[in-house]
Amino acid sequence: ISIEAPIEIEEKIGLLIIDSSSTFDQFWGRDGLQYFWTYQQIDDPYSIPITEVGDSTGIFTFDASNSGIYQFNLSVIDTASHTSKRSIIIEILNVRPEANMRIDSVPVTDGQIIRLTNEQSWNVDATYSIDTQNDIDNLSYTWFLDGKPIMSGMDRVLTRPEYDNELHELTLMVEDNDGAVDWVTVSIGIAGTPSD
Question: What predicted TM-score, i.e. pTM, was given to this entire model?
């Protein structure tokens, strides 16, 4: 049995292709070979093996949008009912999101000190945070002020802190469906106050 596939790939919207088309029987060639694929996510204790009958091409496709470590077992049966088996383990890697913060539409970078206009509130957003296409719609956004969670969501309004005589830390945490996170933290002061 011949199996060609990557050992690891990054998660994506699309298919993982496992190619067993070079498999042949020394007496019968490729004619009449039957392919039976069994796969299981081996890093998930609740995953159960799933078996599918493959087509005669020997090509197996698998949804690559969910990260994890998967074992694929191939059983090939020839016309004389002889069976050969082969296994391969493939890791679909989660890609960590990248947090991007804007304050009143102005991009900021991690560690930056920001001078806010002397207003009662400011628009903050995480619209330009990025992740793989399969995860981008499932990101969660949590906003912290001085280490305490104050709101969640992509676009929010930051209310002026009660004490404006000192710098405050504003943090955005972006988390994907696999629990991978990224952070952006900036120090904010308000123009015309002691925190300026």
Answer: 0.79
